[in-house]
């Protein structure tokens, strides 16, 4: 456990720092998962994850659930629009307990943040919200030319000052070669096992997705449990209604009565 000072000038403990991640590149694998609630963050820490990532608006509650994990705040594209929005959002997230920010924005934006010593994770490969530019949702780097262009983007991201990159749906062999040739800590989301960090969404790991992406794997079945809860809720409500109409509820255990003497006195007072 490392002792740090947060961006809010408060002492804290972290399982990892940016420096740890950079020094471990190519030597050790780490794991990351999304967490956007107190319960999810708590579960990730109890499960022994190394890193969590959340929407920047959820940092406070996520940090309540996990005091120690390395936390990255995602600056959502359509919520942090201008340079001022992004800078303000980044510093608010850091002040609320994040250790880094993730942005899928331009190299100029990454450089702007990095120039202020903000730890920045970029986003390369498939960026779903920008998928119209590549013909829809698909892997990026599917031929040698596209793979080389992707490699050059990694180098530009490195030059812009990012310490890490979310690498989404990149062919595994391409990801492996790029990761060996960049100082950036590579975080694989559907890009195989040759990156530095293995990453999936909480709902995909826990089986809480109706139509999960091909690159995910469910290790639980929360969707089934949630459906069972829905069924049980309706069953209980129906049973209550039935008993109420039939005069079976409330029963003796759910009701109380005045004793005979007090009840008779009560009736006299009514008359």
Describe this structure in words.
The protein is of the alpha/beta class and 271 residues long. The chain folds into 2 domains: 2-220, Phosphoenolpyruvate-binding domains (TIM Barrel, Alpha-Beta Barrel), CATH 3.20.20; 225-270, no CATH class. It is built from 10 helices and 10 strands. The protein has helices at 18-23, 38-46, 59-65, 83-95, 107-114, 144-160, 172-180, 202-205, 222-246, 260-270; strands at residues 2-5, 11-14, 30-34, 51-55, 70-74, 100-102, 120-125, 164-168, 185-189, 197-200. The chain has an 8-stranded parallel beta barrel, surrounded by 5 helices. Helix 3 (59-65) links the parallel strand 4 (51-55) and strand 5 (70-74). Helix 2 (38-46) packs across helix 3 and helix 5 (107-114) runs parallel beside helix 6. The longest helix is centred in the last third of the chain and has 25 residues, at 222-246. It starts with a strand and ends with a helix. The model has no long low-confidence stretch (mean pLDDT 97).
Q: How many helix segments?
A: 10
Give the topology string: H per helix, E per strand: EEHEHEHEHEHEHEHEEHHH
Residues in helix, %: 40-55%
Radius of gyration over all CA atoms, rounded: 26 Å
- First CA to last CA: what distance? 76 Å
Name the beta content range: 15-25%
Number of strands: 10
Structural class comes to alpha/beta
What does the largest sheet look like?
A: 8 strands, parallel, barrel
CATH class label of the largest domain:
Alpha Beta
Give the CA-based shape.
Answer: elongated
The CATH topology of the largest domain is what?
TIM Barrel
Query: CATH homologous superfamily of the largest domain - what is it?
Result: Phosphoenolpyruvate-binding domains
Strand order of the largest sheet: 3-4-5-6-7-8-9-10
Low-pLDDT runs? none
Integer tally of domains:
2
Mean pLDDT: 97
If classified by CATH, what would the architecture of the largest domain be? Alpha-Beta Barrel
């Amino acid at each position: 456990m490392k002792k740090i000072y947060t961006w809010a000038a408060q002492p804290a403990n972290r399982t990892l720092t940016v420096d740890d991640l950079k020094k471990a590149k190519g030597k050790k694998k780490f794991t990351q998962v999304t967490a956007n609630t107190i319960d999810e963050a708590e579960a990730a820490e109890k499960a022994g994850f190394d890193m969590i990532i959340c929407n920047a608006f959820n940092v406070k509650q996520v940090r309540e659930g996990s005091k120690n994990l390395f936390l990255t705040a995602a600056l959502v594209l359509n919520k942090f629009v201008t340079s001022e929005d992004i800078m303000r959002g980044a510093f608010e997230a850091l002040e609320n307990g994040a250790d880094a920010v993730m942005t899928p924005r331009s190299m100029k934006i990454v450089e702007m943040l990095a120039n202020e010593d903000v730890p920045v994770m970029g986003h390369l490969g498939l960026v779903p919200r920008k998928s119209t530019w590549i013909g829809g949702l698909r892997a990026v780097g599917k031929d040698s030319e596209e793979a080389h262009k992707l490699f050059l983007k990694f180098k530009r991201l490195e030059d812009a000052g990012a310490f890490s990159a979310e690498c989404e749906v990149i062919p595994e062999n391409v990801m492996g070669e790029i990761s060996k040739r960049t100082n950036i800590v590579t975080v694989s989301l559907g890009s195989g096992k040759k990156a530095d960090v293995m990453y999936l969404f909480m709902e995909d790991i826990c089986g809480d997705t109706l139509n999960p992406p091909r690159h995910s794997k469910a290790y639980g079945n929360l969707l089934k449990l949630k459906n069972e809860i829905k069924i049980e809720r309706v069953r209980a409500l129906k049973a209550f209604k039935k008993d109420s109409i039939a005069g079976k509820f409330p029963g003796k255990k759910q009701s109380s009565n005045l004793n005979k003497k007090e009840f008779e006195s009560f009736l006299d007072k009514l008359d």
